[in-house]
User: Fold this.
Amino acid sequence: MKKVVITGLGAVTPIGNNVSEYWDSLINGRSGAAEITRFDASKFKTRFACELKNFDPLEYIKKPEIRKYDPFIIYALAAAQQALDMSGAESIANKHDIGVIWGTGNGGFATFEEQVTEYVEGDGTPRFNPYFIPKTIPNMASGIIAIKHGLTGINFTAVSACAAANTAIMDAFNYIRWGKAKMIVTGGSEAGITPATMGGFSAMKALSTNNDNPAGACRPFDAQRDGFVMGEGAGALVLEEYEHAVARGANIIAEVAGAAMTADAYHISATHPEGEGAARAIELALQDANLTAADMGYINCHATSTPVGDLSETNAIAKVFAKHLDKIKISATKSMTGHLLGGAGAIEAIASILAVKNNIIPPTINTSELDEKIPEGLNIVIGKAVEHKVNVAMSNAFGFGGHNAIVIFKKH
Assistant:
């Protein structure tokens, strides 16, 4: 099979609107959480989130186009533009070999909620926006990215809840190494800071209610953690067949080594308490990459700061890497970005890739007292970034419905 490398990255996150800003915030431990400004959240149990800051869509699309696109599409367009610019792909004449495989959990939920609310609160006359359907269907981010850049290769969207971006990356990796494409823009986006989304997750008791200290609310692995913090944004990666990248003189950032998916088949929202499905996915990803547990240098955990999820994941890690935990650095960057749902895996893949490239481990912030149920021996980076030689990094993602998606990256 073909070797697959990364030649472009793009990020629109609550702690930075491009890859450089995002990485700088990660290694300096900056939180993106603050009171919600998108709507009046004063009556909500959770009144804060990780919103984008100073993001200007007009840097990426023309003003008349804004009304045609849901925010999850706009974020996707911005991140994809950055990644394509970095890769130099725009200059490639043959766009038939370039595809788009995107991930999202909810698609155009903001538009759906807005339009249905207007109808219900109106006089009963249906006055839906003519772009209502194209703005809401989940596949439209991949479709619009392709339309904007003339990419006529493989094109579809992966929907696997919070594992969606990792699923998309894995699919892109597979299609390229199978020889079905030369290059694929992949990643994920989400625009989940809406009344219904916040209210729904709050009703599930999944969100932190630490309204007095939003910046310190997301605290993965901490004994006092009380739920995740909602985030928004997008991450994009340009994956490319190695020989194609070399032939055109592309800058190779890192290599995709392997990937795998499993299902917990356990619960609609909770992960398996012992992490059985996650552990099996990690083992399969290592096999796919032709690597062993001893090769791992860094794990970017899914760790959302929920009481059940963090334990499940750390149990899986302890099981697979039992004899090598002292050599593996672990961190949870959601402590800074919040949880981007279907876009989470994309920005966390970027964090993993940059850890490989720069030999720096971004920290887990806000964690002051490790939960005593966390398995012993985990080398969790807390508070400050550390320098650490990383040849191999793994990005974990898990989604409601029991989806486990693991992607492994390595130095080229």
